[in-house]
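Suppose you are handed a protein chain with no further information: no name, no annotation, nothing but its sequence. What can you learn? This example shows the usual starting point.
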Amino acid sequence: MVLVTAAVILMQEGQRKIPVQYAKRMVGRRMAMGQTTHIPLRINTAGVIPVIFASSLILFPATLTRFIQHPWMQAISEALSPAT
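A reasonable first move is to predict its three-dimensional structure. Written in structure tokens, the prediction is:
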């Protein structure tokens, strides 16, 4: 569980540094040298959208078992429902 939490934090906070190099330019009568910098690009740009989809996928089996009227399916439905 600790490793999964660490992996989620690593992916959430991780970023890829894209190098950018600016060209030389004239400033007045002198030549300004080009600069080198980077653009920080996030690995997970979706934010909370994966959490929303994960909760939907977790609740999907409980929703399906509510439509079947067998006693063992009702037991599974009660076990999977978040209200219990």
